[in-house]
Amino acid sequence: MKIKLGLLYGGKSAEHKVSLQTAQAVINALDHHKFEIHPIYITKEGQWIKGPQLDGPVENVGALEFNHGKALAPTALAPTLFEEGQDGGSFDVIFPLLHGPNGEDGTVQGLLELLNLPYVGNGVLASSAGMDKVIMKNIFAQAGLPQVKYVSFIRVDWENEKEDAYRKVEEELGYPCFVKPANLGSSVGISKCSNRKDLGKAFIEAFQFDRKVIIEEGVTAREIEIAVLGNDKPECSVPGEIVPKKDFYDYTAKYEDGNTALIIPAKMEEKQLEALKEMAIKAFKSLDCSGLVRADFFLTHDGQFYINEVNTMPGFTPVSMFPLLWKHTGLDYPQLIERLVRLAMERYEEKQQIKYTI
Known about the structure:
Blueprint: E1 3-10, H1 16-29, E2 35-42, E3 48-50, E4 93-97, H2 107-114, H3 124-131, H4 133-142, E5 150-154, H5 155-160, H6 162-172, E6 177-181, E7 191-193, H7 196-206, E8 212-217, E9 221-230, E10 235-244, H8 251-255, E11 260-263, H9 270-286, E12 291-300, E13 305-311, H10 321-329, H11 333-351
């Protein structure tokens, strides 16, 4: 029996395009003899449109944009719960290939929990906390994970007291610093600032994408990433290093011009590697993650690791670090996806043991 797999992608998010690229890569890597693949496209306006069942690879992302199909009610993912007389029809597993708000932030995960459907990746809490960089960093601080200094603002406070906001950044962090939307990924809306003028422009840019921004202290360090896979007993991949040819690793460098060098495995001492893995798993567990996470770190010249963030739904594009790290660890792309599906089903079965009556 094939596993009936529903792929959710697109989404009402600035990372819509990245999600399409991820969906194409996953579809082309799946074993079509093992999976019955059903694409579900979420438009930029938030409409859900189910495409025809796929029986092979897709040549381009345009083939995955179903802009003229009939809109689907999200509850149709589990028709047995809502439509009288239905027998079967539900998906065996849902794979949310959504990045950013309205997909990676716990919203879709909450829907799938209500529908009682198995799904790949992190649950509601880990997804929402991992999406909001401020909340995430607060949890990491509570867990004792070392981080660079940071401050945050919501839009209304910045609009009312701009000079106070800029002064706080300068006094607590100094320059250079990085301004980011709190709830976004893929390096969208991020700016590096070297002076007050840069800072003002960066706030305007970041607030286009979120009502909250985070500003982080700039450090001179190597950018190290490591992939985590599992549920209650997570494992780490080999580490990788990003060496951007630009000033920093921005959206264009990630997804458009490939203007970076990826070094896998990253060179470091065995003692450093063990410390890195320990910190990555600690971060994974502090957010109560499941399935997968990419953990990003800074490694300074004196050997100090600082956790930067985790990504609870890292990209699966051909240039994405997460699948590359596992490939170099000995788990190739198709095997990785099958492992994630198994982890989703294992977690679902465990949840079915929970009592909901007294």
